[in-house]
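hey can u check if this looks right to u? its 497 residues, i copy pasted from the old doc so theres a chance i mangled smth
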Amino acid sequence: MKTYDAFVIGAGPAGLTTAYSLAKADRSVYVIEQDPTYVGGISRTVNYKGFLFDIGGHRFFSKSKEVVDLWDEILPDDFIDRPRLSRIFYKGKFYAYPLKAFEALRNLGLLESIACVASFGIAQLFPIKNPKTFHQWVRNQFGERLFRIFFKTYTEKVWGMGCDEISADWAAQRIKGLSLAGAVLDGVRRSLGLGRAKGPGAKSLIESFRYPRRGPGMMWEAAAEKFRALGGTLAMGRTLDGLSFDEVRAIWTITVTSGDGARETFCARDVVSSAPIQDLMGRLTPKPLSLFQSRALKYRDFLTVVLIGRPQDELPDNWIYIHDPSVKVGRVQNFRSWSPDMIPDGVSTCLGLEYFCFEGDGLWTASDDELVALAKAEIAKIGLMKTADVYDACVVRQKKAYPVYDETYSDNVDVIRREIGLRYPGLHLVGRNGMHKYNNQDHAMMTGMLTAQNIIAGATVYDTWQVNEDAEYGEAGDSGAHEALKSERLVPKRAAA
């Protein structure tokens, strides 16, 4: 039986980046992907009767020159520059996001605006020391009143839990660098038509991004093709059954099941996993001591109801955040605004209503017909499309879309990391679910690139767990193409210590 240099579990951004980087270095690599059709994981692009749509929406921007260079290498001729336009829907009104100060004041009203400023002042005078929860962190930054208006409802829709149960790590990672003062100053500039201030800014204020003209899946389909051209093997429709490590030979044995039920066995010197930690640890031999910690990790699942309808008034938004508690939908994607090439006839409206749920709950188990009916009613209530104008629809479900940052997740991951480092040499965790970190696509890719370098070096030269420790890493800037020259370089672990 052939022994591969590396066996990669999952053909998403992290897994394919690792595999492609290793194949370019003449390493033999075998990749399995559970999906029988699509590569890209949550960054895939689904095709329904020629209509193309993302699972969640994926902007392409990064401060990392290495990531931007890799995007351009894999997909040199198919990027388009897109404006970043988003709004918030709250109590029947739309708010530009990022904020436009005068519009927000008008929508909220004078008394509410004064109350928000007073609440912010109280938070600054009497901050909560060492905030532990999302609620406490945001309250310190923006005040209690703005927390309840612009953070609480949407966040609880996404996570299915109260903001006092969510770790402050989540806020620190996703909205670090965005302050009320900065947002107001930026909003005043926007309201006056002056644009954004020069210099680095919080990721939430980014105005533009690059995007493959036929969706992010275009990137990963091209990566898979280039990987195969280098001699790599990618097997679709494969499910991981087990992993066992032979300490004497320092070789991994991997068993998988194909779509037709056949069992396959492989050997490899290194294993790279972008599978959810919970799934991976349950398949390891010898049995992990941290199995309890892996089972305690939680995930939020996700489904998109795509409504296709007759042409509407032009909607400029990429997406709209639905903060209104009267509807269940959390966010609405406008696929034409991502790229006109996503709409095959060039005129139809195609909106994706995103619902956050747990596998097995009422939303997840509802029939497609029930979900479509719900989406039609809610899109009409929001006012973006009339029910009668919808002529087709489909539903896409995504398991384990978001690793949950609850109060115990960090301790559990730390225990798992330590055991893998001590008992399972040659096992590498990469990507969002592989590391239980809410990585963006470029961060996931960076973990794959660094892991490939570690495998090539035969040592842990780079600490992949430091990727995305600073929320601004790979986030700030107008567009990856424009920020690449100012990138943070890859820093070896030994030099960074």
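The first helix runs from residue 13 to 24.
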